[in-house]
Amino acid sequence: RQYQSVATALYTTIPPLYSLQRFSRLALSTQYIAGSRSDRNMTHPPDVKLQKFVEKGCIPQRYVFGIMGFLAVANAYAMRSVLSLAITEMVVVHHGMLGNRTLLPDPMGCPIPSDLPVHVPNPENEFDWDEKTQGYILSAFFWGYVLTHLPGGQLAEKFGGKQTLGLGILCTSVLTIATPFAARAGPWWLIATRFVEGLGEGTTFPALNVLLAQWVPPMERGRLGALVFAGNQIGTVISSTLTGLMLQHFEGGWPLVFYFFGGLGCLWYI
What we know:
transmembrane; Sugar_transporter_CS; Growth Hormone, Chain: A; mainly alpha
């Protein structure tokens, strides 16, 4: 009985002591935190506090990624579509080009005039490419673009979406700047340049999908994904407008368009 009474006394005494120890530790830690905050307020000037707050990240990184991804897609689509408009100021226009074809009169239509011009060039433009060559030039980008979608996703999973996306945009930007030099070197040089440019841009969407899966929570993935991929329509609209204005009002001519959008891509990468 004596041992039983001692055990009962210890059992009823130890839990309160344990709780008291926990309360004391909590009080001391609270006092320490409060003291450290007050000391910090007294010793650090406001600008240092603001700098530390900014360094900790007042804007969530997934929103920064959403904005940068939007700009990447917008500029990628701008560099893709700029040649389709600039080529109108690059190539000599041929009106009524018959080639080896025979123009037959239509009995139900207007008669064909005898003085129909077969070849009326526009001397202001620089290149004399036929329609077949122009078709190769405009489609060469997409030959390379379709080849790097699956490899782009594998590269993004292995080496990271950030590096894959950045290097793809940088490659496309550098080749966009080099487009005027390739065009003056010859049409096949331009076709090769556009093909490699398509290879670089083909990694854009796979890398962005990998980054969305890694950085964005599932509940916000739809909203930020819509922001990122809205860059294709907005980039096309803005690039078409700016390209038309630069071709009409600036003295640099059509090469300025490629320098401008290629420079924006390099600036985005930096």
